[in-house]
Amino acid sequence: MFSQTCKYALRFLFFTAQKQQPSAYVPLKLIADELGAPLHFTAKVLQELARRNFITSAKGPNGGFRLNSTQLKTPLLEVVKAFDGDKVYTSCCIGSEMCNENNPCAIHNDCKAIRSRIYTMLFTTYVEAGAMSELIQIFNQSSNHTQL
């Protein structure tokens, strides 16, 4: 459903939110090692998250990544849109370019209901809640079966 980069971006946010301590940053290497992601890939995704202000970064020996209170309240929808656009909740479930409201495919209406639920879940679930729920387990399980 989500691109590999988007899944890892969410996982990195959830993990960082779980591991951060007051006034301390979570080191890049810890994030990469704990989530089984290549260091360079992890750095690139975290840089993009920081560039888009989803996470805060600091350089130096005590540097790393953390989320402030505003970033913890970011709806998952914003992160998904930043990495994957809106295709998750707007595109045809079977990939038909011709499918739309006026020319629906065979499963258009069923998929429309599913896409609506996905949109609602992404809009109403925040990074903070994702970090404290089973969402992190779901992303970890699904990503363990996929190599980068």
How does this structure look, described?
The chain is mainly alpha-helical and 148 residues long. The chain has a single domain (4-144), classed as Orthogonal Bundle (Arc Repressor Mutant, subunit A), CATH 1.10.10. Helix content is 58%, strand content 4%. It contains nine helices and two strands. It has helices at residues 4-19, 28-35, 39-51, 69-72, 76-84, 87-90, 108-124, 127-131, 135-144; strands at 56-58, 64-66. A two-stranded antiparallel sheet has the order 1-2. A hairpin with a 5-residue loop joins strand 1 (56-58) and strand 2 (64-66). Helix 1 (4-19) packs across helix 3 and helix 1 (4-19) crosses helix 9. The radius of gyration is 17 Å and the shape is elongated. The two termini are 16 Å apart. The model has no long low-confidence stretch (mean pLDDT 87).
Write the layout of secondary structure elements.
Elements (H helix, E strand, L loop, with lengths): L3 H16 L8 H8 L3 H13 L4 E3 L5 E3 L2 H4 L3 H9 L2 H4 L17 H17 L2 H5 L3 H10 L4
Antiparallel strand pairs: 1-2
Helix pairs in contact: 1-3, 1-5, 1-9, 2-3, 5-7
